[in-house]
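Structure ticket #2291
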Amino acid sequence: MNETHDPALRSWVESANVPGNDFPIQNLPFGVFRCDVGRPPRVGVAIGEMVLDVSGCRSAGLLDREAIPAAEACGEPSLNALMALGAEHWSALRRQLSDLLRVGSTAARDAARKAELLTRRSDAELFLPAHVGDYTDFYASIHHARRVGSLFRPDNPLLPNYKWVPIGYHGRASSIVPSGSPVVRPRGQTKPEDTSEPPFGLSQRVDYECEVGLFVGRSNELGNPIPIGEAEDHIFGICLVNDWSARDIQAWEYQPLGPFLAKSFATSVSPWVVTLEALEPYRLALPARPADDPRPLPYLSDSRDRERGGVNLNVEVWLSSARMRETELGPIRLSRGNTSDLYWTFAQMIAHHSSNGCNLQPGDLLATGTVSGPAEGSGGCLIELTRGGTNPIPLPTDEVRTFLQDGDEVILRGYCDAPGRVRIGLGDCRGVLVGAPDFESKV
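Resolution: structure written out below.
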């Protein structure tokens, strides 16, 4: 940790000092924004209710030489160029932005510069933070794996490879959408028990999955695996991910090759990327694995990862139906989980992904899979919370939900907190499920 984590720091951006806000000066997450349709998007940093224009800080001469390469990369319409520079450059820029934004800085005394460099977040258009070339979704929660596995395979819920290898599948990068984008109800083949042939039509069991995403920073060359002790050097930061899922399509298609159309119709990503450096005060030792579980193979085992590989990150799911919004009722919280309950760490996912020589690139997105815990109410998706649709969830409008209905808005939230530390958040990841347009199958 360093001076940027000091819980006593205060910013001249007053909204950053409000207790409980997601973006105090100890956070400084990166995103892509614009405040004028006529200007190209560029990189900004969230501070309280505002966005700081990073390349504008460079143009105004507010950054020293060591932060210039990273600040220049922030003039691009995505974070990819910044991500490619590596941890030394990310940290140098973070330190100087922290100096610039704290009480007593030069910018704090210059009202004209404040106005030029800051935009209210509510007035900014936010974009996907990076161009995602490749997307991989893992299955890192053993609690989620057991619960969902018991629904699909009651006699064999946890497959024998789960405790040996971080399971993942290659997702669809082209259907990754920014928070706030509508999500169209998908179509596909399903196989109800009372039919001899699978019908093709609209999914009736659309679900969300509350996940945490890892953005790859520095790349590795094809053929050169990333050792687990160096894995976190390749992680730029984290975001929230909603891996929308059509459970009825999934149940029919997932064998033998796993998810396909049940997952590829949309994946929502939050706009702000919290750097791994900002998460340092909230790192945890890994819980001891049960005595009868296998020890991780050497390429997945590292002493520092065991001591600091966990993150005390709370993730919550909130739901708002169309009727709730019409009657001005706020969203209700459906669940709360924590990434400290994951079976596989961020570093293990990176190390395993590259272990065959796969080359990870700046901006690649790796998701944890559904974050679920052992406690009641910690399941990160409806198929867990409703036990496959058999235990409906009541809403305050006398509605119930087993799976999502058109008009439902799903809101993911995440935040880190620890005694003696300032709470930092990831912001929201939102999406509304909407009805599908008319479509006549020619099959």
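Closing remark: The two ends are 59 Å apart (CA to CA).
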